[in-house]
3-hexulose-6-phosphate synthase (Leuconostoc suionicum), 424 residues
Amino acid sequence: MTKPNLQIALDQNTLADAARIAHLAGPIVDIVEVGTILELQAGQQAIRVLREMFPDKIIASDTKCADAGSTVAQNSKDAGADLMTVIDSATIATMKSAKSVLDGIQVELYSAWNWERAKEWQKIGIEQVIYHQSRDALLAGEVWGKKDLDIVKRFVDMGFKVSVTGGLNIDTIKLFKGVPVYTFIAGRAITGQKDPAKTAQDFQNEIKKYWA
Amino acid sequence: MTKPNLQIALDQNTLADAARIAHLAGPIVDIVEVGTILELQAGQQAIRVLREMFPDKIIASDTKCADAGSTVAQNSKDAGADLMTVIDSATIATMKSAKSVLDGIQVELYSAWNWERAKEWQKIGIEQVIYHQSRDALLAGEVWGKKDLDIVKRFVDMGFKVSVTGGLNIDTIKLFKGVPVYTFIAGRAITGQKDPAKTAQDFQNEIKKYWA
């Protein structure tokens, strides 16, 4: 089974803070993400800075695009992003127009998806979804469980590359053992640590333990 | 019937371009919106600039927030926004946490809403929704019609302040005659004109014609 990617979600309030963390942990991860919070704060400059810092890494733009798909995708692409998220409740027309500009479109799953819609996404060529435990849902006490894993597996069986995110830490990686996860996305579990580089390496080691 | 507000959606790719248009048309409108595209491009600086330019206007931050409600709301508020959008597919927990920080939360209606969810929004104190013809849906040939007006009226009857947006122009305002629309949001119908100030004034005159 292919080793899942490790993606760091940079959701700092300032580009300076994000760059500090990226400078430390960026070399160790596979994908560097400009999180929505950071992008709303610092704009596309955040993508440009990370693109220049990591010319050989995959850069993700977490716009959660809901409309004006081609414009938002073009802007993300121009700034240097390889991947861009769209929200599940966006229309198919929006997703299609985003996909026409930037190939690496990922649908972020909140509360507006079902299996029929997922088939529609596939029909327009979308290959990636992000299964998402909402930060606020986690704060409200929801946790990763069998229900989540079953959903992830079903998306994988449909042929999607599935990224998982939301409240992941070193201890939760093993819950996914045996599941061909495409990418683990970790935010504060890495960025909130004293030594983000060491924590990122711990994540990579833990992932390698189960996906050799 | 109260005159609906006129809101200009600034969705330029650069803050310079948005500021140019705002300088011309801003004094005439009731609400100045930092559109999603602009905010993703220029970051919160866009809100700060428009807040300083128009200290007495309502400033809207069109984040279409899907997660991390309180952080995104705090950032919008700190930059000077009075209103902030959340996406319909956000969880109730996310909406609630946004609302706890910034009172003027508006739910933007894409494809993830129904009347039951709308009642839940009301239960947590949300008073505003934005009924939205997607730009991409409009490009795909969908237009304003009775179906849309019926939805707007039902939201109004429930007690919501309803903003309408998507492909509005001078000629479509009259379609809403008799409906207590809270706000008309116009983007390129104003920003794309040679004389944005004159067009904004034409909008205001047209609105006054039907909502005296």
Q: What stands out?
A: Strands of chain A lie at 5-10, 31-34, 58-65, 83-87, 104-109, 128-132, 161-165, 183-186. Chain A has one domain: 5-210. Residues 5-210 of chain A form a domain with the TIM Barrel fold (CATH 3.20.20.70). Chain A has ten helices and eight strands.
